[in-house]
Protein backbone atom coordinates (compact mmCIF):
# COMPACT_ATOMS: atom_id res chain seq x y z
CA UNK A 1 0.00 0.00 0.00
CA UNK A 2 1.35 3.51 -0.72
CA UNK A 3 1.82 5.68 2.35
CA UNK A 4 -0.09 8.92 2.78
CA UNK A 5 2.32 11.33 4.40
CA UNK A 6 2.49 14.86 5.69
CA UNK A 7 4.67 17.13 7.80
CA UNK A 8 3.15 17.23 11.25
CA UNK A 9 5.56 19.40 13.25
CA UNK A 10 8.97 21.03 13.14
CA UNK A 11 10.00 21.35 16.77
CA UNK A 12 12.80 23.40 18.28
CA UNK A 13 11.63 22.74 21.81
CA UNK A 14 9.58 20.18 23.71
CA UNK A 15 6.44 22.33 23.77
CA UNK A 16 6.29 22.09 19.97
CA UNK A 17 6.12 18.27 19.93
CA UNK A 18 2.75 16.99 18.70
CA UNK A 19 0.55 15.14 21.23
CA UNK A 20 1.52 11.58 22.19
CA UNK A 21 -0.62 8.60 21.28
CA UNK A 22 0.61 7.71 17.79
CA UNK A 23 3.49 5.19 17.58
CA UNK A 24 6.73 6.92 16.61
CA UNK A 25 9.87 5.65 14.91
CA UNK A 26 12.83 7.99 15.26
CA UNK A 27 15.69 8.26 12.80
CA UNK A 28 19.08 9.06 14.35
CA UNK A 29 22.63 9.19 13.10
CA UNK A 30 25.69 11.33 12.52
CA UNK A 31 25.26 14.59 10.64
CA UNK A 32 25.38 14.02 6.89
CA UNK A 33 24.81 10.25 7.16
CA UNK A 34 21.75 10.55 4.92
CA UNK A 35 18.87 10.74 7.42
CA UNK A 36 16.80 13.28 5.51
CA UNK A 37 17.44 11.52 2.21
CA UNK A 38 16.29 8.18 3.62
CA UNK A 39 13.26 9.76 5.30
CA UNK A 40 12.28 11.30 1.95
CA UNK A 41 12.77 7.98 0.16
CA UNK A 42 10.61 6.20 2.72
CA UNK A 43 7.93 8.88 2.61
CA UNK A 44 8.02 9.00 -1.18
CA UNK A 45 8.06 12.80 -0.99
CA UNK A 46 10.70 15.49 -0.58
CA UNK A 47 9.51 16.72 2.80
CA UNK A 48 12.80 16.59 4.72
CA UNK A 49 15.51 19.10 3.89
CA UNK A 50 18.60 17.49 2.36
CA UNK A 51 21.67 19.53 3.18
CA UNK A 52 24.88 20.02 1.25
CA UNK A 53 26.35 21.55 4.40
CA UNK A 54 26.34 19.12 7.31
CA UNK A 55 24.86 19.92 10.69
CA UNK A 56 21.88 21.90 9.43
CA UNK A 57 18.90 20.08 10.96
CA UNK A 58 18.49 21.33 14.52
CA UNK A 59 14.81 20.65 14.90
CA UNK A 60 12.98 17.42 15.64
CA UNK A 61 10.79 16.84 12.59
CA UNK A 62 7.60 14.79 12.80
CA UNK A 63 6.09 13.22 9.69
CA UNK A 64 2.76 11.46 9.91
CA UNK A 65 2.30 8.30 7.90
CA UNK A 66 -0.98 6.62 7.10
CA UNK A 67 0.25 3.20 6.03
CA UNK A 68 -3.14 2.14 4.74
CA UNK A 69 -2.46 -1.37 6.05
CA UNK A 70 -2.36 -3.13 9.42
CA UNK A 71 0.24 -0.66 10.71
CA UNK A 72 -2.39 2.10 10.54
CA UNK A 73 -1.17 5.53 11.51
CA UNK A 74 2.36 6.18 12.80
CA UNK A 75 5.02 8.89 12.72
CA UNK A 76 8.56 9.06 11.42
CA UNK A 77 10.67 11.43 13.48
CA UNK A 78 13.85 12.90 12.00
CA UNK A 79 16.25 13.77 14.84
CA UNK A 80 19.09 16.29 14.53
CA UNK A 81 22.42 14.70 13.60
CA UNK A 82 25.33 14.39 16.01
CA UNK A 83 29.08 14.45 15.71
CA UNK A 84 29.47 17.51 13.59
CA UNK A 85 32.70 18.96 15.00
CA UNK A 86 32.35 22.51 13.70
CA UNK A 87 29.21 23.14 15.64
CA UNK A 88 29.62 25.36 18.70
CA UNK A 89 29.51 23.90 22.19
CA UNK A 90 26.26 25.66 23.01
CA UNK A 91 24.62 24.29 19.88
CA UNK A 92 25.76 20.78 20.70
CA UNK A 93 24.31 21.19 24.17
CA UNK A 94 20.98 22.35 22.73
CA UNK A 95 21.05 19.32 20.41
CA UNK A 96 21.60 16.85 23.18
CA UNK A 97 19.01 18.45 25.46
CA UNK A 98 16.22 18.38 22.89
CA UNK A 99 17.13 14.93 21.57
CA UNK A 100 17.63 13.33 24.96
CA UNK A 101 14.41 14.74 26.33
CA UNK A 102 12.61 13.36 23.28
CA UNK A 103 14.19 9.90 23.53
CA UNK A 104 13.96 9.63 27.32
CA UNK A 105 10.46 10.96 27.87
CA UNK A 106 8.48 10.12 24.77
CA UNK A 107 6.13 7.24 25.57
CA UNK A 108 5.04 6.89 21.94
CA UNK A 109 8.62 6.16 20.79
CA UNK A 110 8.70 2.47 19.84
CA UNK A 111 12.01 2.20 17.99
CA UNK A 112 15.06 4.16 16.92
CA UNK A 113 16.43 3.55 13.43
CA UNK A 114 20.17 4.13 13.75
CA UNK A 115 21.59 5.21 10.40
CA UNK A 116 25.22 4.38 9.77
CA UNK A 117 27.33 5.15 6.69
CA UNK A 118 28.06 1.80 5.04
CA UNK A 119 31.54 2.97 4.02
CA UNK A 120 32.64 3.61 7.61
CA UNK A 121 30.65 1.29 9.84
CA UNK A 122 30.05 2.23 13.48
CA UNK A 123 32.37 5.02 14.66
CA UNK A 124 33.03 5.92 18.29
CA UNK A 125 30.05 8.26 18.60
CA UNK A 126 27.77 5.67 16.95
CA UNK A 127 28.86 3.19 19.63
CA UNK A 128 28.16 5.82 22.27
CA UNK A 129 24.63 6.30 20.89
CA UNK A 130 24.04 2.54 20.88
CA UNK A 131 25.14 2.25 24.51
CA UNK A 132 23.06 5.25 25.52
CA UNK A 133 19.93 3.81 23.85
CA UNK A 134 20.45 0.37 25.29
CA UNK A 135 20.90 1.78 28.83
CA UNK A 136 17.47 3.35 28.36
CA UNK A 137 15.96 0.15 26.99
CA UNK A 138 15.15 1.66 23.59
CA UNK A 139 14.90 -0.84 20.72
CA UNK A 140 17.27 0.05 17.92
CA UNK A 141 17.49 -1.08 14.31
CA UNK A 142 20.59 -0.32 12.27
CA UNK A 143 20.11 0.86 8.69
CA UNK A 144 23.20 1.35 6.56
CA UNK A 145 23.18 4.31 4.15
CA UNK A 146 25.08 5.32 1.01
CA UNK A 147 25.72 1.67 0.06
CA UNK A 148 25.77 2.75 -3.61
CA UNK A 149 29.31 3.96 -2.85
CA UNK A 150 30.44 0.36 -2.26
CA UNK A 151 30.58 -2.01 -5.21
CA UNK A 152 27.76 -4.52 -5.30
CA UNK A 153 30.01 -7.58 -5.00
CA UNK A 154 31.52 -6.40 -1.70
CA UNK A 155 28.33 -5.48 0.16
CA UNK A 156 27.49 -8.85 1.68
CA UNK A 157 31.01 -9.39 3.01
CA UNK A 158 31.16 -5.89 4.51
CA UNK A 159 27.78 -6.32 6.19
CA UNK A 160 28.91 -9.63 7.69
CA UNK A 161 32.07 -7.98 8.98
CA UNK A 162 30.11 -5.17 10.68
CA UNK A 163 27.80 -7.71 12.30
CA UNK A 164 30.82 -9.72 13.52
CA UNK A 165 32.42 -6.53 14.91
CA UNK A 166 29.30 -6.21 17.07
CA UNK A 167 26.30 -3.93 16.87
CA UNK A 168 22.96 -3.67 18.60
CA UNK A 169 20.07 -4.14 16.18
CA UNK A 170 16.63 -5.74 16.41
CA UNK A 171 17.26 -7.53 13.13
CA UNK A 172 20.00 -7.91 10.53
CA UNK A 173 20.79 -4.34 9.43
CA UNK A 174 19.24 -3.31 6.13
CA UNK A 175 21.68 -1.98 3.52
CA UNK A 176 20.18 1.00 1.70
CA UNK A 177 20.84 3.74 -0.80
CA UNK A 178 18.70 6.84 -1.04
CA UNK A 179 20.56 7.72 -4.21
CA UNK A 180 20.00 4.48 -6.12
CA UNK A 181 16.88 3.67 -4.13
CA UNK A 182 17.60 0.18 -2.94
CA UNK A 183 16.68 -1.28 0.44
CA UNK A 184 13.85 1.25 0.74
CA UNK A 185 10.94 -1.16 0.20
CA UNK A 186 12.54 -3.54 2.70
CA UNK A 187 12.78 -0.80 5.33
CA UNK A 188 9.15 0.20 4.73
CA UNK A 189 7.98 -3.37 5.30
CA UNK A 190 10.16 -3.70 8.41
CA UNK A 191 8.71 -0.50 9.90
CA UNK A 192 5.12 -1.47 9.08
CA UNK A 193 5.59 -4.91 10.63
CA UNK A 194 7.16 -3.44 13.75
CA UNK A 195 4.41 -0.85 14.20
CA UNK A 196 1.70 -3.48 13.66
CA UNK A 197 3.28 -5.69 16.36
CA UNK A 198 3.79 -2.97 18.98
CA UNK A 199 1.26 -1.55 21.42
CA UNK A 200 1.88 1.81 23.03
N1 LIG B 1 25.75 8.57 -2.74
C1 LIG B 1 24.80 8.80 -1.83
N2 LIG B 1 24.70 10.02 -1.26
C2 LIG B 1 23.75 10.22 -0.34
C3 LIG B 1 22.85 9.18 0.05
N3 LIG B 1 22.04 9.68 1.01
C4 LIG B 1 22.39 10.97 1.19
N4 LIG B 1 23.41 11.31 0.38
C5 LIG B 1 24.06 12.64 0.32
O1 LIG B 1 24.66 12.93 1.59
C6 LIG B 1 24.46 14.31 1.93
C7 LIG B 1 23.73 14.43 3.26
O2 LIG B 1 22.43 13.89 3.13
P1 LIG B 1 21.27 14.26 4.15
O3 LIG B 1 20.13 13.36 3.82
O4 LIG B 1 21.01 15.72 4.19
O5 LIG B 1 21.94 13.79 5.54
P2 LIG B 1 21.51 14.13 7.06
O6 LIG B 1 22.38 15.26 7.51
O7 LIG B 1 21.84 12.87 7.80
O8 LIG B 1 20.06 14.44 7.08
C8 LIG B 1 23.69 14.94 0.76
O9 LIG B 1 24.62 15.56 -0.08
C9 LIG B 1 23.05 13.74 0.08
O10 LIG B 1 22.81 13.94 -1.29
C10 LIG B 1 22.99 7.89 -0.58
O11 LIG B 1 22.28 6.92 -0.31
N5 LIG B 1 23.97 7.78 -1.51
MG1 LIG C 1 18.95 16.05 7.85
Give a structural overview.
By secondary structure, this protein is of the alpha/beta class. The protein has one domain (4-197): P-loop containing nucleotide triphosphate hydrolases (Rossmann fold), CATH 3.40.50. The chain has 5 helices and 7 strands. The chain has a 7-stranded mixed sheet, with helices on both faces. Magnesium ion (MG) binds at residues 35-36, 51, 57.
Strand-helix topology:
Blueprint: E1 4-11, E2 24-29, H1 35-43, E3 60-66, E4 73-78, H2 89-105, E5 109-117, H3 124-135, E6 140-145, H4 155-165, E7 174-175, H5 184-197
Parallel strand pairs: 2-4, 2-5, 5-6, 6-7
Antiparallel strand pairs: 1-3, 3-4
The structure holds guanosine-5'-diphosphate (GDP) and magnesium ion (MG).
The site of guanosine-5'-diphosphate has 21 residues, from helix 1.
C-alpha termini separation: 23 Å
Taken together, the total number of domains comes to 1
The bound ligands are: guanosine-5'-diphosphate, magnesium ion
Give the C-level CATH assignment.
Alpha Beta
Main β sheet profile: 7 strands, mixed
- Cα shape: globular
Order of helices and strands: EEHEEHEHEHEH
Strand order of the largest sheet: 1-3-4-2-5-6-7
Structural class given helices, strands, pairing? alpha/beta
CATH superfamily: P-loop containing nucleotide triphosphate hydrolases
Mean pLDDT: 91
Strand content: 15-25%
Radius of gyration in whole Å, from Cα? Answer: 16 Å
Unreliable segments (pLDDT under 50, ≥5 consecutive)? none
> Helical amount among residues, as a percent range?
25-40%
Mind telling me which CATH architecture this is?
A: 3-Layer(aba) Sandwich
Amino acid sequence: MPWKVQVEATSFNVSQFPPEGVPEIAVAGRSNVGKSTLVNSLLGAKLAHVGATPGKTRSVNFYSVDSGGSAGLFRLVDLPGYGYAERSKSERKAWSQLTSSYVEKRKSLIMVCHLVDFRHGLLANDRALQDWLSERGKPVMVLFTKADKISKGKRREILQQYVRDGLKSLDVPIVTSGEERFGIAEVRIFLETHVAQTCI
